[in-house]
From TrEMBL:
Coiled-coil segments: none
Species: Vreelandella azerica
The Amine oxidase domain, residue ranges: 118-366
Protein name: NAD(P)-binding protein
SUPFAM superfamilies hit by this protein: FAD-linked reductases, C-terminal domain (SSF54373), FAD/NAD(P)-binding domain (SSF51905)
């Protein structure tokens, strides 16, 4: 039997930050279970030693979330500062392009500059999760442990997982923090069942950006800037509906875009066809040089089993979700099971800052109980 005080399910930003906060408050009996074989959850940045990426120096380009806003997301900004991470503003100088049809020249208009500015991290957002992981001293982090079921026993909680080899594991804990999307949490087996209203709220909370995919194209130089362009574009014809400059402060140049092609269509087309269409679109917008990136990468989140459910794939996730209840108000699950994934953030659900917010609230709740 494996006994611990607190089990955290999910080693994304919320789970890592919750473990970090618990340790800061002298809680040391913590197990963090991660379904994937890596840190980060929805945060993933390119790295040269990753088997999915070419063996070239392309570290730090985000394939998941990229931005935070220190101007109003103060808790997130304080964490970045405390961990000693370097932030820089999203490049937005110059004109942007509007493409209404692939057969017509894009319209060039004055660019839009966010205020307060959108900020990114040197090394990619993965630098944040890595720094939190390295800060942990008394947390056991277990990879490849997807949690399938939770049982409320007489004296504790039983957390059941099964690894890639089919071996089952059980952890006994006093409390559990669910650092995952509410829909994934609702799909686990609970014994006894969760209260119907709570389960319904979790099941009906869309996972932010889950049905979407991101394309990143790397170049030797940000040549579009010499044309007076910001790298930002909007398109009705696609395949990319929204494009931004993804270059690094050290000179590594890139453009990235969000697909406006539905997940099922992307799956039918396949990545090879999608890459060719993305290159053709970049060429239409930014000139022939854009048709030949040094490296291009597609990250499709719609078929990530530890991010996205079938309900997410069929939804639009076009608006940030309304945060559901984080816990049962009464009954056997009250006070011992709390949701802390980003969608549970009351002020910034779905954002990186929402993960920080929800993790902080969850830690406060279990320590108070």
């Amino acid at each position: 039997m494996q006994k611990t005080g607190t089990v955290i399910v999910g080693a994304g930003l919320a789970g890592l930050y919750a473990a970090h906060l618990l340790e800061k408050r002298d809680v040391t009996d913590i197990v963090l279970l991660e379904a994937r074989e890596r840190l980060g959850g929805r945060i993933v940045s390119t790295s040269p030693d990753h088997p999915a990426f070419p063996a070239v120096e392309i570290a730090g380009f985000d394939l998941g979330p990229s931005w935070f806003w220190p101007g109003f997301q103060h808790q997130m900004a304080e964490l970045v500062q405390t961990l000693g991470l370097q932030a820089f503003a999203q490049f937005e100088q110059g004109d942007m392009l509007i493409e209404r049809s692939s057969s017509m020249a894009a319209q060039r208009v004055q660019g839009f500059v966010n205020s307060p500015p959108s900020m990114r991290l040197v090394g990619g957002m993965q630098a944040l999760t890595q720094a939190l992981y390295q800060s942990l001293e008394n947390t056991s982090v277990m990879f490849g442990q997807p949690v399938q079921a939770l049982h409320r026993a007489a004296s504790d909680l039983e957390v059941h997982s099964q690894d890639a080899h089919g071996k089952r594991h059980t952890w006994h804990a006093d409390q559990v923090l669910l650092a995952m999307p509410p829909r994934l949490a609702a799909n686990m087996a609970f014994s006894p069942a969760l209260p119907a209203e709570l389960s319904s709220q979790w099941q009906n909370t869309p996972t932010w950006m889950a049905p979407h995919a991101k394309y990143v194209a790397l170049f030797k130089t940000p040549f579009w800037r010499a044309q007076g362009l910001s790298g930002e574009a909007r398109s009705l014809s696609g395949p990319l509906g929204e494009i931004h400059d993804a270059s690094m402060p050290d000179g590594k140049a890139a453009l990235f875009g969000f697909f406006n092609t539905p997940a099922a269509t992307r799956q039918r087309m396949g990545n090879d066809v999608l890459v060719q269409e993305c290159r053709a679109q970049l060429s239409r917008l930014f000139g022939p040089q854009a048709a030949h990136p040094d490296v291009d990468i597609i990250k499709d989140w719609a078929y990530e089993p530890y991010t996205t459910t079938q309900d997410d794939r069929h939804g639009s996730s076009g608006q940030h979700p309304t945060a559901p209840a984080i816990k049962a108000q009464d009954g056997v699950w009250s006070g011992c099971l709390i949701g802390i994934g980003s969608e549970w953030g009351q002020q910034f659900p779905g954002y990186l800052a929402g993960a920080i917010e929800a993790a902080s609230a969850g830690v406060d709740a279990i320590l108070e109980s």
